[in-house]
């Protein structure tokens, strides 16, 4: 109580440097996820047979391109946490956004010169550097955000992920219709370059390194975060983690959520174009609605949806409904897609919190492992879609994709319900075990 009272007394009344850092980090997450998903809309226009300069890529090739981002993402997932601790958040987040921007600028020309293989290479590099994204952001949040404001300010930062997807899908349709698919990548690249320049000038790895922060705000942050004395660190109990059954049940749930979420994220624009016959502008708007719903629902779901969200029943049922969407019935299909993706907002209050509940002292290590395995499913899901779907216009083949995702949702959720727990594990506090 004494610490809280003290920080309340010294808390600056006006907006400060920490708010500027929050805004820059929010923009970074928004841009990163925009560049993560831009190929999903662009590839619809790139392979449009009515265009003279279209690419004659089979659906399996398109699925390979859509999954290639995750090849690189998985490669550096495990070491990214250690790299963030060693080099700090500012360096890695700058590398992530700048490399993604450069690849976006190179991709249109490279696609004509190097074919789909060059496109995959660009996406792999983007994925590799985006592996730094969450560890870097976690590090920056831990340095900049006072405990009294962590929920609100970190929520703003991480909300950029869903907003980035939604805005990208909306804007891409209009950009491609007006100036062609190349403009999607050029826009992302230019915005990313502008952000990089701004962050190099105004961004800072920590309050202590900032040249613009006031002594009042610096003291407020330091006091709130308890930066007095040396913080005790424990070696990671890898064997305890590996043999923790509730942890692996949570990993399974994470994998199931990623399968369904990224199946829709990568395949939705193609489904809308080929099965529902939606033109590119409306495609982007309709495809964005689920992510806008996820962005808006991520806040209230954290407090009100234990029954639905922590058990993941909603996405599976909605996907089954989507698989039976009447051909050409866009209202029904978009409604099911919106429910499916919107309910996924609950993963912030489901398995994501379980990873913290199990072992708060080692939650970053648990998250790195879980994220590694879950993103392997993100890599596999589009490839499986490419194997299942031979005719992109056949609703029956898409129905198989949606039923598979529903089954995975159901089975992984069942594993989570039966075998995980939110009880803190004994190995979370090694010194207590040693003394006992």
UniProtKB/TrEMBL annotation:
GO terms for molecular function: symporter activity. It is found in: Membrane. Coiled coil: none annotated. The keyword NAD does not apply. May be an inorganic phosphate cotransporter. It comes from the Eukaryota. InterPro entries: MFS (IPR011701), MFS_dom (IPR020846), MFS_Na/Anion_cotransporter (IPR050382). GO terms for cellular component: membrane. It comes from Parnassius apollo (Apollo butterfly). This is Putative inorganic phosphate cotransporter. It is a multi-pass membrane protein.
């Amino acid at each position: 109580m004494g610490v809280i009272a003290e920080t309340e007394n010294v808390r600056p009344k006006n907006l400060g440097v920490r708010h500027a850092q929050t805004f820059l980090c929010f923009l970074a997450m928004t841009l990163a996820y925009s560049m993560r998903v831009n190929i999903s809309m662009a590839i619809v226009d790139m392979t449009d047979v009515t265009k003279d300069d279209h690419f004659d890529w089979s659906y399996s090739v398109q699925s390979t391109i859509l999954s290639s981002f995750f090849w690189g993402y998985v490669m550096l997932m495990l070491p990214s946490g250690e790299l963030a601790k060693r080099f700090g958040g500012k360096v890695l987040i700058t590398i992530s956004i700048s490399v993604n921007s450069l690849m976006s600028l190179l991709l249109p020309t490279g696609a004509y010169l190097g074919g789909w293989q060059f496109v995959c290479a660009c996406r792999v590099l983007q994925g590799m550097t985006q592996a730094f994204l969450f560890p870097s952001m976690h590090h920056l949040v831990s340095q900049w955000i006072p405990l009294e404001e962590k929920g609100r300010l970190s929520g703003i930062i991480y909300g950029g992920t869903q907003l980035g997807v939604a805005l990208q899908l909306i804007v891409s349709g209009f950009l491609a219709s007006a100036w062609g698919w190349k403009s999607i990548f050029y826009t992302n690249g230019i915005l990313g370059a502008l952000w990089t320049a701004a962050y190099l000038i105004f961004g800072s790895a920590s309050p202590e390194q900032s040249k613009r922060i006031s002594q009042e705000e610096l003291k407020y942050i330091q006091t709130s975060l308890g930066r007095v004395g040396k913080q005790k660190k424990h070696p990671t109990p890898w064997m305890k983690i590996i043999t923790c059954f509730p942890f692996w049940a949570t990993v399974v749930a994470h994998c199931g959520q990623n399968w369904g979420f990224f199946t829709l994220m990568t395949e939705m624009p193609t489904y809308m174009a080929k099965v529902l016959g939606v033109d590119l502008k409306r495609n982007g708007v309709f495809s964005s609605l689920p992510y806008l719903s996820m962005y808006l629902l991520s806040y209230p779901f954290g407090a009100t949806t234990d029954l639905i969200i922590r058990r993941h029943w909603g996405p599976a049922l909605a996907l089954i409904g989507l698989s039976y969407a009447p051909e050409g019935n866009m209202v029904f299909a978009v409604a099911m897609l919106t429910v499916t993706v919107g309910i996924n907002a609950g993963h912030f209050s489901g398995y994501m919190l379980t990873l913290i509940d199990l072992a708060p002292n080692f939650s970053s290590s648990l998250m790195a492992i879980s994220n590694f395995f879950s993103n392997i499913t993100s890599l596999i899901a589009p490839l499986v879609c490419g194997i299942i779907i031979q005719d992109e216009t056949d609703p029956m083949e898409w129905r198989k994709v949606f039923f598979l995702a529903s089954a995975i949702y159901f089975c992984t959720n069942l594993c989570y319900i039966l075998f995980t727990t939110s009880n803190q594990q004994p190995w979370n506090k090694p010194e207590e075990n040693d003394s006992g």
